Amino acid sequence: MGYNLLEALNVRVIGSGDRYLLLAHGLGTDQSVWQRILPLFTPSYRIILYDLACAGSVDPDYFDFSRYTSLHSYVDDLLNILKALGVDRCAYVGHSVSAMIGILASIRRPQLFSKLILIGASPRFLNDEDYHGGFELGEIEKVFSAMESNYEAWVNGFAPLAVGADVPTAVREFSRTLFNMRPDISLFVSRTVFNSDLRGVLGLVRVPCCVIQTARDVSVPASVAEYLRTHLGGRTTVEMLRTEGHLPHLTAPALLAQVLRRALAR
Amino acid sequence: MPTSVTTARQFLTEEATRALDEAVAVARRRSHAQTTSLHAVSALLSLPSSTLRDALELCVGVSLDRLPSSKSVEDPPISNSLMAAIKRSQASQRRHPESYHLQQLHSSNNNNANANGCSQTQSILKVELRYFILSILDDPIVSRVFGEAGFRSCDIKLALVRPPVTQVSSRFSRAHCPPIFLCNLTDTVSGRVGYNLLFPGHEDGIDENCKRISEVMAKKSGKSPLLVGVCALEALRAFTESSTKGKSGILDGDLAGLMVMSIEKEVNELVIEGNEEKLGLKLKEVEATLEKCNESGGVRGVVVHFGDLKGLILDGVSGDFVSHLVLKLAGLMEAYRRRLWLMGAADSVEICRKFCDKFPDIEKDWDLQLLPITSSKSSFDGAYPKSSLMRSFVPFGGLFPTPSDLKGPLSGRNQSIPRCNLCNEKYEQEVDAIMKAGSTVSVADQYSENLPSWLRMAAVDTSKGEDVAKTNSGESMLSAKVLGLHKKWNDICQRLHRTPTFPKLDINASMSQVPTVEGPQFSTDLKQRSHGDLSVNGSLFPNQSPSRQIHMQKKFLPKSTASISCTSEGRNMNFHSGLHMDVPSLTQQTDKDMPWFHHPRQSLSSCSGRTHTPSSFVPPVTTDLKLGTIYASTCQESNTTKLLNHKEHLQHLSGSVSAEFDANSETTSYQFAQSSSCSGPTSGEQFDLGDYKSIRKVLAEKVGWQDDAVNSVSQAVSQLRHRYRSSRGINCKGDNWLTFLGPDRVGKKRIASALAEVLFGSQECLVSLDLSLQDKVDHPNSIFECEELNSYDVISRGKTVSDLIAEELRKKPHSVVLLENVDKADYGVQHSLDLAIRTGKFPDSRGREIGINNMVLITTSSITKGNINVICEKKGMKFPEERILGAKNWQMQILVVSASDDAAAGKSNYTGVRVTTVKEASTCTSANKRKLINAVESSEVEKTDTQEREHKVPRSCLDLNFPVEEADEDDTGSGQSKSELLSESSESWLEELLSQVYKKIYFKPFDFDGLANKIVKEMRLQCERRVGSGVALEIDEEVMVQMLAAAWFSDKKGALEDWVAKVLGRSFAEAGQKYNLTPQSVVKLVACEGGVVKEQAPGICLPAKINLN
After folding, report:
1. Nearest CB neighbour to A204, from listed B196, B370, B531
2. Which end of chain B is more exposed for a tag (fewer CB within 10 A), N or C?
3. What is the distance between the alpha carbons of residues B867 and B879, in angstroms, rounded to a whole number?
4. Which of B473, B481, B468 is nearest to B442 (CA)?
């Protein structure tokens, strides 16, 4: 049965090396987003790639709306994949929603992860009394209705915004993967993500974390990285990337790879 | 970016292309800029073979009318969303290989069309019309229109897909099983006939959180869930509400028949008013219920929920009440194991931790299990159904009407019962019957494992929960039975009571979606439990070794880093030993390669600037060894220019260093880089450049010799300010903390007080405490005291240091707080600082907290990580900082002797300036007793053996007339050994603390030796001018130290030069008049040990007059 799961989520293990490195993509992308990072790590790591169930590259028929109502189901998937592969320890690199998933997974199975590297991570996207997540509830509702009424327009507006940096190829690539998602699924998942609030449980994380934050990210204000650093239970460092946007692996792969390499070595 | 029509055409089969062309034609007719899915639909409707209905045509027409028209284009290009739909249909067709073969034929015919910028090199999959339509229906603009027309896209899809469904399912069941996620284990798989896409309906079953809570409780270990998370309280409420409201789906399976009792109100009353009575009564009631539940089958157990944990650790709460309650509940837990569950919620882990700190055994006593809650279902509920579109989006969602559909729009969440009441009742009866038999099985199961839960947890975890399936087999049988029953009654109900409207297939649907239906849900239970076992266990306790586990059991999440601490300590040890070994070579390297390291005054102000080159590490610059010598005053000019030449390299270096800066790295090479510290701007954060510059100006005025540190401090502070000002300025913990590392205590202090002025308007707004003072002996008459650097041990009697700090903080709520030598902090202070940096509140020893968010906290430590700086600096330095810090404020005296008297020195012919180490026996008057121990000629100081002589000689020629301590005191090695003595634990504490501060700033050693050279030059000049050139000058080293210290402490630039010119020059002149100075004379400047300065020179802590003997 594990085999089927691996197939459904397009799990790939590539590279040589004795350590496992799991690269988990974020919302609106799929594993192809790591393409430019991959060659730099394949010589020294066995890299596990997979697609989230909500990714456009996964058969949307497999997306069970009654199951993926919270991030815990994605965590299940992740842990099942690692189990099916027989991985008992790996470094985890997660972007945006996958960062959240990684945090939850590491709470459940701390021994499984040697390190979490969280790119563009946020425990909570919505603002709160003394927390600045970057989004107001009203704003989000507007975004959602924009998604509903015209997905195309939304994607066209959102993609450059998210990519942030002026890198047309990155915008194109992100638009592509975003379009690949079935609109209903991306809306559903977005709701799930915005509904999640990990702030209270960050202290349960025991795995050392490295938070990678770009200088300007529409989805994640800089204060969030700091929030993560102070609240994550494990030893946590923050790396500021001197680039902009939510998708440094698309816009500045070399820079990111450098930081990744350092974070992994630590 | 719209796509051209021809490109889009390549992807389609002939039939579909015709549809597309038609769509383009529609767009053109209407003069629309792009061809959208809506046009496609419109076109499809007009096709003769259309499967769509006429009514739709009208709707689509209306919608198209609303689109803005533009200049007519020949072929309105394909909009992105339509193109995306084509891509999607391609993908979905690829997933159905039986049509794929067919398509390959197509594509081989059209291979030549591929050249047109298409990334796929092999073959293009031609999309069949059917898939094309399916994808178009996904497009929001289409489904919205359909929704308005009263259709659901999915209904239409169904109509389209119905024929292939049977084929597909048969294929799937054989070769290509749908992926098996954890939720469809074992028996549900068989229940899930064929195509799982048939049952994706997002019914609002039970709350995900409730499900997970039940999992924890239903596990064999039967933990009491303590929900943690921002939405935890909400989830708790939802759980209790829905479980008390009805038996609907939350407490079933093993948990069926549990009764939820809330003591929340009573606890609140106890906590706020101290009213114990009501709680006592309530607990009695609970106990009575528990007593009964053995006998009757009605209530099988009790869940006591105590609400928000925060209530129990409020500041004002009398600990007695709470601990009484804790004991009471623990007693109940002990007595009624497996029948009593506690339940509570906490906002955050920190609260749990606080609670557990208070009651270390609580975890065991209450049998608690932390359960992370990360989402609030209720908010989801609120938002979710609002979107009518969502439903229409859901593919095939309407294929099999969900139960709520049957009930019509009025049906709410709790009414989604597929069975009528009559059938339901019967069903429940039967289930009960089975349950009675079954429950014994599960209970036995539970007791079979008497291992302590902690050990079991470890076992489960290591075996990765493989045993779970095994042990659950009994239960799975049971649940299978119940599922069977469930199905049976559903079946009966449908046939008898609503036969015609209910499609047969719903049986399958409801079966795979057990959560929708009311009644026991064994199948989900089982699934969830099985993964719950391995997940929840793993969640809290990184199992390391059994002993560790046991330890944890006692402590339950001991302080923040419990689980890591032991490993990291080990690592630290390694790291340190490694470091010590590396130090000699490192320092050597420093000597040779980094001349600027010894010349902080010429620090690389040019290169420390704003270079943002995150280049790869450039090997250290190499300059001539000669340039690096400390006393080579003649070389200084050329040195500077050389340095400028190397500016480029240095910029690289600073770039790489700054890139490493936040890295907190542990390799020695990085350490090295950090300690040598060209601390350029370290992060890419924005800040106001003007602000930065003005701050830097003020700081640089005060501390001219720490350019790099000044730069980084100004940068950090301007960033800080920027954040406070900007709307994003959220006060993160640790944000307003800085750390100054390295030597130069005065520089640090001075910068702190300058910051107080910059930030809060006055130097008065500085709270300064030296945490090392408590274990220091008083140094009477030290220059430091004369500068009033600390008035702290006067008031400190009988108070803990943290109280003292708290008091000061309370006095000055807006201030810069300078905590010196934080590495020497005692345990109490360590604890307080820990909390302060985490929570933004500084607690005193009694737990009262003072907000520190309006302060800037600066901790200093003379050790940088690994002590490199200290050691480097000591090596080959004539006047190390420790020595200067010990400077005494003595009166000075000029002695004139003839060179022949001093024949012992053996340098009678020498005329120049010497800095001598003179030990005064008692007072200045007993000049004959003094002993010249060592003389060093300053103008030709050789670095090589100064040090040895200086440190060894005094000891070896120890005169019995001298107090022994004095010699020891001067021993500069003591500082090093002290820091070595620092316990491992406090070291790791420091590391932890420093990792949380906003920025670390490394200071360079003050260049005392350079200054000494300068002073000597200056004095010689004065001496020559006032008394003539033939006279030799001898300066007591004590005096030199005193002068250096005074210059270091002085606020005024050039104060020492002034003093030398005025006071010393005058004295020289007086001496020249008083004595007949011949070339044989030696003028000596010595300290009158024991003679305190009576009158102080303005602007500097040196005597205003110098005695002549």
Report:
1. B370
2. N
3. 18
4. B473
Chain A neighbors of B395, CB-CB under 8 A: 60-61, 182, 184
Nearest to B181 among A5, A107, A221 (CB): A5
Contact state of A72 with B723 under an 8 Å Cβ cutoff = no
Residues of chain B with Cβ-Cβ distance to A239 below 8 Å are 662-663
Q: What is the pLDDT of residue A167?
A: 78
CB distance B181–A77 less than 8 Å? yes
Q: Which two tokens stand for residue B1032?
A: 């030799």
Which is the catalytic residue, given A25, A95, A246, A249?
A246
Query: Are A148 and B390 within 8 A, CB to CB?
Result: yes
3-class DSSP state of A117 = strand
- Nearest Cβ partner for B662 among A9, A148, A238: A238
Predicted confidence (pLDDT) at residue B633 exceeds the cutoff of 50: no
> Which of chain A's residues have a Cβ under 8 Å away from the Cβ of B383?
141, 144, 191, 195
Contacts of residue B86, Cβ cutoff 8 Å, sequence gap at least 6: B8, B11, B12, B78, B127, B132, B135
Does A76 participate in catalysis according to the annotation?
no
The minimum CA-CA distance between B284 and chain A, rounded to whole Å, is: 33
* Residues of chain A found within 8 Å of residue B92, distances taken between Cβ atoms: 59-60
B461 Cβ neighbours under 8 A, 6+ residues apart: A109, A111, B534, B537, B538, B543
Question: The pTM is what?
Answer: 0.43
**Complete DSSP assignment for B265-321:** HHHHHHHHH--HHHHHHHHHHHHHHHHHHTT-SS--EEEEEEEEGGGGG-TTS-HHH
- A187 vs A148: CA distance, rounded Å: 8
pLDDT of residue B55: 56
CB nearest B81 (choices: A130, A148, A152): A152
Main-chain dihedrals φ then ψ at residue B1103, nearest 5 degrees: -65, 145
Chain A residues within an 8 Å CB radius of B373 = 200-201
Written as six digits, the tokens of B81 are: 């969303």
**Whether A184 is catalytic:** no
A12 inside 8 A of chain B by CB: no
- Residue B532 CB partners (closer than 8 Å, separation 6+): B212, B215, B216, B219
Q: Which of B630, B676, B730, B690 is nearest to B1010 (CA)?
A: B630
For residues B679 and B711, the answer to whether their CB atoms sit within 8 Å is yes
d(CA B27, CA B4): 13
Checking ipTM against 0.95, whether it exceeds it is: no
Mean pLDDT of B948-973: 39
Residue B106 to residue B12: CA distance in whole angstroms: 10
Determine the Cα–Cα distance for residues B959 and B962; give it in Å rounded to an integer.
6
Least confident of A146-155, B40-49, B107-116, B395-404: B395-404
Nearest to B728 among A148, A221, A233 (CB): A221
C-alpha of B355 from chain center = 22
Instruction: Give the CA count within 13 Å in the CB-facing half-sphere of B587.
Output: 17
C-alpha distance from A15 to closest chain B C-alpha (Å): 25
pLDDT-based confidence at B514, cuts 50/70/90? very low
* CA closest to A110 among chain B residues: B542
B19, B132 contact by CB (below 8 A): yes
Among the residue ranges A208-222, B85-99, B584-598, B721-735, the one predicted with the least confidence is B584-598
Look up residue B1089 and give its two tokens: 């040990």
The yes-or-no answer on residue A88 being catalytic is no
Nearest to B1089 by CA among B923, B948, B909: B923
Continuous H helices in A86-167? 97-108, 137-149, 151-163
CA distance to partner chain B, nearest, from residue A213 (Å):
10
A81 has a pLDDT exceeding 90: yes
